[in-house]
Amino acid sequence: MRKHRHVQLARMIENPEATASAADLNYATDGREGISRHRRGKSFAYYAADGRPVRDRDTLARIRALAIPPAWTHVWISADPHGHIQATGRDARGRKQYRYHPKWREVRDAVKYYRLVDFCHALPRIRRAVEHDLACKCLCKRKVVATIVSLMERAQLRVGNEEYARTNQSYGATTLRNHHVKVRGPMLELSYRGKSGIERRVRVRDRKLAAIVRQCHDLPGRRLFEYIDDDGNVRPVSSQDVNDYLRDVSGGPFTAKDYRTWAATMAAAMLFCALEHPGSVRGCKQCIKEVLGKVSAQLGHTPTVCRKSYIHPQIIDDFTDNRLEARLSRGVRRAVRNHDGDEIDVVALRAVEPIVARYLDTKRRARA
């Protein structure tokens, strides 16, 4: 892939139409005419926009391959086999769900992992801005958002989604409630249900953050992270506020999710580099299983999701093929030589960050 193509990929995450074009797909929305699904006994019948039943074998095979859950309602299926969205529907809790074209996911993942190196390069700039804003005397918006960003890095918190909090009682940083936190001196402890019902309990020892969180906790209202605006009104922080802040201070198209990709990849690299390659397929699979288990436990999601959505595939592929360069392994081991090998925290992640970023950047340039 040419270098100018990489630049296009780095900008694509913000533009779904550009992503669809890069994947040789057509941009699609469920606002357009499509195929509807209707239950018929124990199975389903499908109808085109003109009301005629769908009988084309290829179309029916495509629909079956989408594996749309039977519980979904208000199902819309793209009439275009090359649409970037292939289907939408509402799950049992009323949340909108999507089925994307495989090529769309491939390009989106390529963009996500490509820009991980750029995110690593932007992190020092983000950290300087966070430290500056944490020093603000008042409980302003930038100070509270900076607190959330710091906690996302230190404790690998999801940013949060109000719909998930409302319908599923699962929480992230911006949707945490006051009862989810305990502050004792310099220690703050968060206990809450995360995505997919996974219970999370994280501790962060930082006197400055603990003091700010205590101030937030003392504000009126149930939400933990709120701020005081210029008129003296108490306002909640949204996930959009966090992403806007990251774009502003980094100068790049980064979002809160990049922190979890960063943490998962750095942790996986650290753990893989501590292992000797087993020399067999079976042994290799067992090593990968162990690493995925540790990383997923740290981030609060399943090993499958961890591998599919968060760890840079280059790290796993190179370990599998016994191609993790000796200098990477030596550098990572040296960076964390005084650290508990089974402990994943921000100190260790920051220590291996420049080494892993250089490694991934070299691999990226080799493919350019």
Structure in words:
A five-stranded antiparallel sheet has the order 2-1-3-4-5. A three-stranded antiparallel sheet has the order 6-7-8, covered by helices on one side. The chain has a two-stranded antiparallel ribbon with strand order 9-10. Helix content is 51%, strand content 14%. The model is unreliable at 1-6 (pLDDT under 50). Helix 4 packs across helix 5 (141-155). With 368 residues, the protein is α+β, with helices and mostly antiparallel strands. It contains 14 helices and ten strands. Strand 6 (181-184) and strand 7 (187-193) form a beta hairpin. The chain is globular. It has three domains: 26-100, 2-Layer Sandwich (Viral Topoisomerase I), CATH 3.30.66; 124-250, Topoisomerase I, Chain A, domain 3 (Alpha-Beta Complex); 257-367, Topoisomerase I, Chain A, domain 4.
